[in-house]
């Protein structure tokens, strides 16, 4: 069978199974078991079981539940309210202040949680009603929340970066750190978009917005700017515990995740928001989410080996390199696929299908792996905010009942444009991505 | 029959709490490793391997509960149009049960070979490989039974969570 027919069969069957609504991990199980039986025979089933056992006991994946636990503790403790108040105080009384607050908060939350859906739902519940009540444009508010939430998978700790690093055998520390500058740039681009939009149409933000009462009860309770900075110090401490430890080479990603959990617990205790019940809820929720992710990873691991076994991966690499397309044209082609497919299928599921195919191409075409996979990561997040099936959109739609799904969809268009512009920038100026990890 | 169901439910919950405990132990021993390395200058030989093994137990013992509460990731474009309890949903659950059963069958086969050959894991702190393979078999076995129960008696089991729930998988 021709290599492209092999690939078409593998990926077509997998996609078709997923679209039936069967659990993603079961779809991978069925494809892997069937392909093993057809390609290798009875002896291959041992390989399959060993691949499941090996991937469940892969030490680099231990980072995932720890980072999830850290985010859960911060969200469930309500410590983020303190951060919201402090940023609100620091941004000051400027037109459209809450837009800026949400962008900054989402950037920090993204760094602390790593989950776009969680950030989107949380901001949809906390910031959205407040902004609507104060006369902020619901559409612009939704745009800002979606853009901010989409930073979560880019800014470390990113769970997707850990999975990519493990699958593509790229430095996980490097991939995590590589997301910092792009995350900040996207954040600034969103801020610029908001400023320009408000300048063009002042009705998007109420004039001279009174001080925010979101959680602390008014101007008097907001305190001084210095107080706001002091209240933010514990969060900066957590960010240092996670990113600083990796950048300084003191801890591995897994160890930095563990120190991040302790940091998050200490912050919750400091703000008197820690309780045994909250910690237990965070623990069980983190366990569930980790299992949901890891069982897909474990079930899918053999998939790439089977595709390679057929020789189709190698043939694809040969075909792609023989095309003789300029590297940047090839890059655009490679990025178009995830952009389209991630509108329809889960990001992790797509990741597990695509990385085995893309990895040999990245090497054959001579791309810097950190650069390529970081932009790939940004690309995946665009799928989460692209109608009609982006998970982040549904999270915001569910969390903000004052917004219709159609409004959320319309709000997502500027976000998609901003992210695509950012991807183009990172593609044309690789040091924006590679400079910081190069310092490791 | 109801007592059997209650017992199965209890087993799923106990397995889940062991999975959650594994996460706590992973956290604790990782902190021990950091402390031993930077405070006492004596890095351990056993932590990284222990973390790997605990992760396997976390995933496999947590699998039945995630299956029971129907929290697995799926693409629900088609399912959203199908009412709860519809034969299509039940068919998918039974297919899932069959897939899990196949995994269990092959895992037991591999486990028996590992016992016969006395195979150990790689690493500085080695354990019999059957401990990991056994966890795989156990996790998929209970998850398969849960799928089977959901497929045969869907009304007695919890409804699927909404797609937009904040705990949805995405990173």
First and last CA, distance of chain A: 45 Å
| Residues in β-strands, percent of chain A | under 5%
Tally of separate helices of chain A? 22
Counting structural domains of chain A, the number is 1
Poorly predicted spans of chain A:
212-217
The greatest inter-chain interface is formed by: A-B, 80 and 67 residues
Rounded Rg of chain A: 22 Å
Topology, number of strands of chain A: 0
Round the mean pLDDT of chain A to the nearest integer and report it. 83
**SSE order of chain A, as H and E?**
HHHHHHHHHHHHHHHHHHHHHH
Distance between the termini of chain B: 41 Å
Structural commentary:
The complex is a heterodimer of chains A (440) and B (171). Chain A starts with a helix and ends with a helix. The model of chain A is unreliable at 212-217 (pLDDT under 50). In chain A, helix 6 (97-113) runs parallel beside helix 8 (138-149). The longest helix of chain A has 35 residues, at 276-310. Chain A has helices at 3-19, 24-39, 44-56, 63-77, 79-91, 97-113, 116-133, 138-149, 159-168, 172-178, 180-200, 219-222, 225-247, 253-270, 276-310, 312-322, 327-341, 347-364, 369-384, 391-399, 405-428, 431-438. Chain A has one domain. Chain A has 440 residues and is an all-alpha fold. Chain A has 22 helices and no strands. The relative contact order of chain B is 0.15. Chain B has 171 residues and is mainly α. Chain B contains four helices and no strands. Classes of the chains: A mainly alpha (440), B mainly alpha (171). The interface between A and B is large, with 80 and 67 residues.
């Amino acid at each position: 069978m021709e290599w492209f027919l092999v690939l078409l069969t593998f990926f077509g069957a997998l996609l078709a199974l997923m679209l039936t609504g069967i659990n993603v991990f079961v779809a991978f199980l069925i494809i892997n078991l069937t392909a093993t039986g057809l390609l290798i025979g009875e002896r291959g089933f041992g390989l399959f079981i060993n691949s499941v056992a090996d991937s469940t006991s892969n030490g680099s994946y231990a980072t995932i539940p720890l980072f999830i636990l850290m985010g859960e503790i911060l969200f469930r403790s309500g410590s983020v309210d303190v951060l919201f108040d402090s940023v609100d105080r620091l941004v000051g009384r400027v037109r459209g202040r809450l837009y800026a607050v949400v962008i900054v908060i989402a950037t920090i939350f993204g760094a602390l949680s790593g989950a776009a859906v969680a950030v989107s739902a949380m901001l949809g519940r906390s910031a959205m009603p407040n902004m609507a009540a104060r006369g902020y444009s619901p559409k612009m508010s939704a745009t800002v929340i979606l853009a901010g939430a989409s930073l979560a998978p880019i800014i470390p700790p990113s769970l997707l970066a850990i999975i990519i690093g493990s699958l593509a055998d790229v430095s996980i520390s490097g991939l995590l750190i590589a997301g910092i500058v792009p995350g900040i740039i996207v954040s600034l681009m969103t801020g610029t978009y908001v400023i320009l939009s408000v300048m063009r149409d002042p009705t998007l933000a109420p004039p001279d917005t009174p001080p925010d009462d979101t959680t602390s009860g008014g101007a008097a309770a907001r305190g001084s700017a210095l107080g706001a900075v002091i209240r933010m110090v514990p969060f900066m401490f957590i960010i240092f515990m996670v990113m600083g430890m990796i950048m300084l080479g003191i801890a591995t990603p897994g160890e930095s995740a563990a120190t991040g959990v302790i940091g998050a617990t200490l912050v919750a205790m400091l703000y008197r928001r820690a309780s045994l019940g909250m910690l237990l809820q965070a623990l069980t929720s983190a366990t569930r989410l980790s299992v949901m992710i890891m069982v897909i990873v474990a079930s899918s691991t053999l998939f790439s080996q089977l595709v390679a076994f057929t020789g189709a991966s190698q043939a694809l690499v040969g075909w792609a390199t023989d095309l003789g397309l300029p590297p940047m044209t090839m890059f655009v082609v490679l990025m178009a696929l995830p952009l389209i497919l991630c509108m329809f299928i889960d990001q992790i599921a797509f990741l597990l299908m695509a990385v085995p195919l893309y990895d040999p191409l990245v090497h054959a075409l001579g791309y810097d792996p950190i650069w390529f996979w970081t932009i790939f990561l940004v690309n995946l997040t665009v799928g989460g905010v692209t109608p009609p099936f982006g998970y982040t959109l549904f999270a915001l739609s569910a969390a903000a009942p004052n917004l219709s799904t159609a409004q959320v969809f319309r709000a997502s268009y500027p976000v998609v444009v901003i992210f695509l512009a950012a991807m183009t920038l990172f593609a044309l100026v690789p040091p924006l991505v590679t400079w910081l990890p190069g310092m490791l | 029959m109801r007592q059997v169901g209650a017992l199965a439910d209890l087993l799923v919950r106990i397995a889940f709490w062991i999975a959650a405990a594994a996460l706590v132990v992973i956290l604790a021993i990782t902190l021990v490793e950091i402390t031993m390395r930077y405070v006492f200058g004596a890095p351990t030989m056993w932590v990284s391997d222990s973390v790997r093994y605990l992760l396997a137990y976390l995933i496999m013992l947590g699998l039945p509960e995630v299956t029971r509460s129907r929290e697995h990731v799926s693409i629900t474009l088609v399912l959203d149009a199908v009412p709860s309890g519809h034969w299509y949903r039940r068919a998918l659950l039974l297919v899932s049960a069959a897939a899990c059963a196949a995994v269990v069958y092959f895992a037991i086969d591999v486990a028996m070979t590992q016992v016969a050959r006395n195979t150990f894991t790689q690493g500085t702190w080695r354990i019999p490989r059957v401990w990991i393979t056994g966890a795989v078999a156990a996790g998929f076995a209970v998850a398969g039974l849960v799928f089977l129960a959901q497929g045969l008696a869907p009304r007695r089991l919890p409804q699927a969570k909404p797609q937009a729930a904040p705990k949805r998988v995405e990173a």
